[in-house]
Write a structure and sequence with these properties.
17 helices; 393 residues; 6-stranded parallel β-sheet; 43% helix; alpha/beta
C-alpha cells in the first residue's frame, strides 16, 4: 500500500438512505481503498445489539481477499467494541475510527412533537434505551478518533453524556468523558451534488401567467422532522388565500402517516406530487421547486435540505439544530426563522423574486458540502489515523 493510500474497512450496519449514500459516496471519492461491510437498513435495535457478530463474519471474507486493513471505520449502529473483539483473530491491529450520524442518547423517540417541546433539547431522553446508549459509549471509548457530523451534534452529546453516566450505581466511567471527548472532532457529511449544482433551474413560478410557487418537502416522514407542523402551516396559508403548490417527496416508513393523508385531502389540487422518487426524478423535482421548508425538531446535519439548496430552492429553516452550520452566516438572516415559520414562509411566497434575491449566491455556496470538497478532508483524517495508530507493516 502506498504511503498516502490506506486500506479502510468501513463497517455500516444500517446501509440505507443517507447512511448508505454517505458510505458509498466517500468510497467513490476517496483516494483510499475502501471496503464496505454492511447490513440492510432495518431492525435498528438488533443492528446495534447483534451486527457486531455478523459483520465480523463479513469482514473476515474481506480480510481474506484484501489483507488486514490500516483503519476500521464504524458507524453509530455497530457496537464497535464488540466488533473488534469478535474479529480480533484476523483483523490485525488497525487504527479505529467511529462516525456518528446519530447518537442514541440524544436522538429523539417517536413521541408527538408537543411532548418533545416540553423537554429541554440538550437533556438526555428519560426513556433512552440504556443498552443502546452504552453501545454507542463503548464505541466511543474504543475508538482512536470519534468523528461527528456537526458541532450541534457534538455539543448535544457532550452535554448529555456526564448526566447519563452519573446514573450508574458505581464505577460510572465519568472520569473517561473528558478523555473521550478530546478524541472527538466534527467532520460534516459529504453530498452528491454534481447533478444539482450548476444544473438549469426549471421553475414554473411567476411572472404572471405561470404556475404558483412550488414548495417541496423532501425529508423523511418521521416525527423528528415534524411534518405535522409543516402541513398545518400549509393548510392555514391555503385558508388565507396564499398561492402555492406542494410536492411531498420524502421517504415514508410509517404505517400510518395520518397527517399526510388528511393534508392531501384538505389541500386538494395544490398537491402536485406524493411519494419517494428515484434519483433522476428527485433531481428534476428539486430543480423545478422554488422553496424548501424544514420544521424539524431534530437534525444533526440535513442532507435533504442541502440538496434542495444546491438545486436553487429558497430555504425556510429553523435558526437552531444544525442549520446555522449548514447555511453560511451571510444568509442566516434571510433563511433562518426563530419563532414563526408560517410568517417567514408567507413572506417568501408573497414576493418570490425578492426572496430569491436575498439568497443570491447561497446555491453556489452549497459546493462546500459536495464530496469533491469534503472527501479530501476524510482522506486526510484517515491517513493521519493510519500513520499514528495503524499497524506497522
Amino acid at each position: 500500500m502506498a504511503a498516502d493510500r490506506c486500506s479502510v474497512l468501513l463497517v455500516n450496519p444500517w446501509h440505507g438512505g443517507s447512511h448508505r449514500a454517505w458510505a458509498e459516496g466517500w468510497a467513490r471519492h476517496s483516494r483510499h481503498e475502501v471496503h464496505l461491510v454492511t447490513h440492510e437498513d432495518r431492525y435498528w435495535r438488533w443492528r446495534l445489539r447483534g451486527a457486531s457478530v455478523t459483520l465480523a463474519e463479513a469482514a473476515r471474507a474481506v480480510v481474506d481477499e484484501h489483507g488486514p486493513p490500516d483503519v476500521v471505520l464504524g458507524t453509530d449502529l455497530v457496537d464497535l467494541a464488540a466488533f473488534l473483539g469478535v474479529s480480533r483473530r484476523f483483523l490485525g491491529a488497525p487504527a479505529v475510527a467511529l462516525y456518528l450520524h446519530e447518537s442514541q442518547l440524544v436522538r429523539p423517540s417517536g413521541e408527538a412533537p408537543a411532548a418533545a417541546r416540553r423537554r429541554r433539547s440538550s437533556a438526555p431522553r428519560a426513556e433512552a434505551d440504556a443498552e443502546s446508549v452504552l453501545a454507542n459509549w463503548r464505541s466511543m471509548v474504543v475508538a482512536d478518533a470519534v468523528l461527528v457530523n456537526s458541532r450541534h451534534h457534538l455539543d448535544e452529546l457532550a452535554g448529555a453524556l456526564p448526566q447519563f453516566l452519573d446514573g450508574a450505581p458505581d464505577h460510572t466511567h465519568r472520569d473517561l468523558v473528558d478523555r473521550v471527548l478530546a478524541r472527538c472532532s466534527v467532520l460534516p457529511v459529504g453530498c452528491e451534488l454534481v447533478g444539482l449544482l450548476g444544473a438549469a433551474r426549471r421553475s414554473t413560478a411567476p411572472p404572471a401567467g405561470r404556475a404558483p410557487p412550488l414548495i417541496v418537502w423532501n425529508q423523511r416522514w418521521d416525527h423528528d422532522k415534524d411534518p405535522a407542523s409543516f402541513l398545518r402551516i400549509l393548510r392555514r396559508l391555503a385558508d388565507e388565500g396564499a398561492e402555492f403548490r406542494v410536492a411531498l417527496a420524502g421517504e415514508n416508513r410509517r404505517a400510518d402517516p395520518r397527517e399526510f393523508t388528511e393534508a392531501i385531502d384538505a389541500l386538494g389540487s395544490r398537491i402536485v406530487h406524493v411519494g419517494f422518487l428515484p434519483t433522476d426524478g428527485y433531481h428534476d423535482l428539486l430543480l423545478r421547486s422554488d422553496v424548501v421548508v424544514s420544521t424539524a425538531r431534530h437534525e444533526f446535519f440535513g442532507v435533504a435540505v442541502v440538496e434542495a439548496m444546491a438545486a436553487g430552492c429558497i430555504p425556510v429553516l429553523p435558526a437552531r439544530l444544525s442549520y446555522p452550520e449548514v447555511v453560511p452566516p451571510a444568509w442566516h438572516e434571510a433563511v433562518l426563522y426563530r419563532r414563526r415559520p408560517k410568517a417567514h414562509l408567507a413572506e417568501v411566497l408573497a414576493d418570490l423574486p425578492a426572496a430569491r434575491a436575498r439568497v443570491a449566491g447561497l446555491r453556489d455556496a452549497m459546493a462546500r458540502h459536495s464530496w469533491e470538497e469534503v472527501a479530501p478532508r476524510y482522506d486526510e483524517v484517515i491517513a493521519g489515523l493510519a500513520a499514528e495508530y495503524g499497524p506497522r507493516r
